[in-house]
Amino acid sequence: MTASPLRAVLALSLCLASSGRAADGPLRVSMIPTTDPSKMLRDAQPLVARLEQATGRKVTLTIPQNYAAVVEALVQGQVDVAHLGGFTFVQANARAGAIPLVQRERDRDFHSKLITTREDVRSLADLRGKHFAFGDVNSTSGHLMPAYFMRKEGVDPAVIDQAIYTGGHDATALAVAERRVGAGALDEAVWERLVREGKVDPGKVRVFWTTPPFVDYLWTARKDLDPAVARKVAEAFLALDPAKPEDRPILELLSAKGRYVKVDVAAYGPLREAAIREGLLR
Which of 78, 117, 124, 129 has the fewest C-beta atoms lying within 10 Å of its C-beta? Predict the structure, then answer.
């Protein structure tokens, strides 16, 4: 009779110890790989430091090779906070109740750019018979929304259905620049950065079509993350100010032209409908 209460006390002690380790352990953060993951990791050190300062916890940042890995990590409870695109958020919210935290102002009115080097591609109609490139299959601005709008505009379905997937926005730009494909779609913020950094020559690679606006990137938290921690993370982003020199490296990493704002989760409804129409979501 004495063994059972003792086991209960030991079990409770282990539970409390485990809970304490979780509360004091590293904050696990992940980001979808919009460009080269290794470069993103190097450039993200100021962001890691800011989140550590804001939460009082060590931050471990991972950037896998594809978008699906971040969603799966959230679903399995292996990540506490994640930077997702609109479509990956819709997936993570549906599968694991991911909670939206904040987004850039520009994510309320985002676009994809369709680019080419070919002189005979001046409009969407000119894509017929051309080899096309998207980024990651789970990318909002690199696949879902450009494909959705292209279909609405009557683009030859074969162009969309036979397109290749490069895995990332920068890889799509490179495929177009090297003329491995006739045209491709990518995130407008990545396009701006590639041009600004001289990695793409706009005299050779040009934008020939811009999609209508849609909602995109945001920071999210797993549904059972301590609300106080989630609030501290959100407040850290909301406090970022382009006028402050110390904040600029973080904002530049995230291609944020302005401030961060709270998320209107209802705005992602049309994106979910687009994913269903494209056969990417049930």
Answer: 129
